[in-house]
Write a structure and sequence with these properties.
By secondary structure, the chain is an alpha+beta fold. The chain is about 40% helix and about 20% strand.
Length: about 230
């Protein structure tokens, strides 16, 4: 009996070691099994995180796209400020080609002709003719006038008007004196003498001042046919 016990005692540790080693292997196997699902879950988390990053980047790129000029709302475009008009000038424009002093044609009276940059002309005489365009759709027009003074001189006036309050009217005027001592007469007469033409008249001076634009021709027709060039 004493010989059998040692065998039992000696076998017992061996069994425990085997059990321990088996348990270790089982634990490692269990550990491997427990790590496998964790690794799959981590990969899934990484994939989902990567997808979220891609989406966020995509949204960021779309938000930062520059707006095309053609897509701008018309309401945001600035419109030019509207010009203020003068009520007095608007009434004058509405009456064209009639002028305020048309009733003074042929009437002897005191006149004052305004000139920019020079002294105004004051004289007693007659308004021979005045002309203005039939309309002024753009708010600008000209007025031409010819006067004759009691002393035999002629005054030519050109006025440029605008209906807009911020734009000032402009005034030009010249005097034709038929006397040889007058400077304008001398200058024009010298040009005529060089060409050996007929003597200078106030009509020649009028053409030199107004020219032959349509409004000037309308002014000449109100005076006489002497402004026309007659040929045979």
């Amino acid at each position: 009996m004493s010989s059998e016990r040692p065998e039992e005692i000696s076998n017992a540790p061996v069994d425990r070691g085997r059990q321990t080693s088996n348990a270790g292997r089982d634990g490692e196997s269990a550990g491997d099994r427990s790590q496998t699902p964790g690794s799959a879950q981590g990969a899934a988390d990484d994939a989902s995180h990567h997808e979220a990053t891609v989406l966020v980047r995509g949204e960021t790129v779309r938000d930062q796209e520059p707006t095309s000029p053609s897509k701008k709302s018309p309401s945001k475009e600035k419109k030019p400020p509207r010009k203020e008009v003068s009520e007095v000038k608007v009434k004058m424009q509405s009456r064209l080609p009639v002028l305020d002093d048309d009733a003074d044609v042929g009437v002897q009276k005191e006149h004052i002709v305004v000139r920019d940059g020079k002294a105004d002309l004051a004289f007693t005489g007659t308004l021979l003719a005045a002309a203005a365009p039939p309309s002024a759709p753009q708010g600008h027009w000209r007025e031409y006038r010819i006067y004759e003074t009691n002393g035999g001189k002629h005054v030519f006036s050109k006025v440029s008007r605008s209906v807009f309050a911020e734009e000032q009217d402009t005034h030009e005027a010249e005097v034709f004196d038929p006397a040889p001592s007058s400077v304008p007469s001398q200058l024009l007469r010298s040009a005529r003498d060089l060409t050996r033409s007929r003597p200078l008249t106030w009509m020649d001076a009028a053409v030199a001042f107004f020219g032959y634009d349509p409004l000037a021709k309308a002014l000449y027709r109100k005076l006489s046919g002497q402004f026309e060039e007659h040929i045979s």
